[in-house]
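The step that takes the researchers longest sounds almost clerical: writing a folded protein down as plain text. Below is the pair of lines this work produces for a single protein:

——
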Amino acid sequence: MSTREDRMAFKIDGEHRPGRWLVTCDHASNHVPDWVGGGDLGIPAEDMARHIAWDVGAAGVASELGRLLDSPVILSDFSRLVIDPNRGEDDPTLVMQLYDGTIIPANRHIAAEGIEERLDRLYRPYHAAYARLAALRPDRVIVAVHSFTPCLRGRAPRPWHVGVLYSHLDERFSRPLIARLQAEPDLTIGDNEPYSGHLPGDAIDRHALRLGRQNTLVEVRNDLIGTREAQAHWAARLAPILTEVLEGI
């Protein structure tokens, strides 16, 4: 049975849907629990609304994608600035102190005990639920939904509409997905852009690569998914393509 702490850590849509997919959204929320700095990391509200705190628009895409694929969805319910569930427990960026030019005051002097509390109350319950959902079908395919900012501060603009990220350890699904998306004449597709999809200890490594599950990570540029209508549009565009690619491999 879920505890109150578990419910603070994640949300599940359609747990009993029969589809083969598990749709995940590691950075679905910019929520800061009250027990972390009184619900305040010490940065302005406009920074908490930026990509540094969550993947803007990704939760809406993930939820609608799961509905269209008739498959379960798991979404984190805490900001990546509190603790990043898409990092290994030993990753130095697990609790960020500086991100895209913004210092995170609540994290600057965090002690090991503070990190452990965030692991126990947020990170580990999320991953336990993720593992449980992934194991409900032996042929599970994981599609992780993220979003990326069009431009980091002081960097060149990012031209891609969608990036498909993957590890060289398992390209089975992502390579044909990239080829299929590149056939769309109006899209610029990133092949392991805007960054590499291989990160030891991240969520895909933990729940897919180590267990041989087919997987991919889809990044949508966040200026394209800023409204519910836009999120629904992209989910509706991606769902049949994902299905087509899976049927072809």
In short: The mean pLDDT is 95. Helices lie at 4-9, 45-48, 58-69, 105-108, 112-134, 174-182, 203-207, 228-247.
